[in-house]
Predict the 3D structure of the following.
Amino acid sequence: MRLTDLSIAALKAPKNGVAVYFDDTLTGFGVRVSMGGTKSYVLTHGPRRTRETLGRVGVVKLAAARKEAKERLAQYTLGKDKPRAVSWDKAKEEYLAEKASDLKPRTHADYTYILGRHFKYGPTKLLELSPHDLMASLARSKHTPGEQQHAYVILRAFMRWAHRKHYLDRNPMERMQEPRSYVPRARILTNDELRRVWLAAEDDTFGNIVKLLILTGQRRGEITQLTGSMVGEDTITIPTWLAKNSREHTFPLGSMANAVLTPRVGKDDCFFPALGKETPFNGYSKCKPKLERRCGVSDWTLHDLRRTFASGLASLSVAIPVIERLLNHVSGSFGGIVGVYQRYDYMPEMRDAISRWESHVLRLISG
């Protein structure tokens, strides 16, 4: 068949496995359709019928995919089966497009953020990047060891992919030493520090995110991606695709937290969008230092608010299983066989815990 935008849109997903539909006008070029409906451009070539993914349909245009397939076939035909001189940006774009169907949306966004923030090589060819270049980029984040470790893992995955794609003769991270193990933080804010942070948080997007993190104890990535469909009258439901542990999480919404989320937004709208964009808010690097200067509290992270929430509930005599349910933890009290058979939702106990916590926060900021 001749592949066109219309014929590709009409392709049906197979009941099992994948199906490949080849283009009559270019040997080996086609579209692979998974049983889940994901469509990707592919090129099959050589005596071993090597198959390469060129990009995801909808992300890469048909004309661009066909042009790329022609260029690769020309190289293979001329015997130039050597690493192609592809730029960092082009390889990164292809990698992220290919991984879009394999990763959870929040994980894919994380990969996009890390590769864009820590490794700004632009048009530089992958073949020109040395191990020293990569180590220098990683070293710039040594003041945040947790993020440095995360960046190393994502970069390693990307470089292994590039090596498999024959964009590199050798993986430049082959002998690179992994950053020292990250030591989990143990910081919790005191009552006075929590009060100062709350009072310094302004009535804007970042300030409301901080307040909601204080009041709910949820993860930053989950709160910033809240949409209208996730927020009910007195509950919030984090869907499986957004929850870190891939388990849907419903927890009660107290009156103070409810007030932070007013006015309501549309079903598909984000409560905390980036300025002028539909994507979730991501201006932490600029907003948090300003908040720290206003409140006078230093050496803390937004995730420390989650730890402070948990410790604060414990100080208010809230039972550990209730705290873990509020945090959506699947280990601890709900690990192993208990997590399989224990299906009680603890909603009444969670409502009581949130009521106690909001009363505690209200006393702090009113005193």
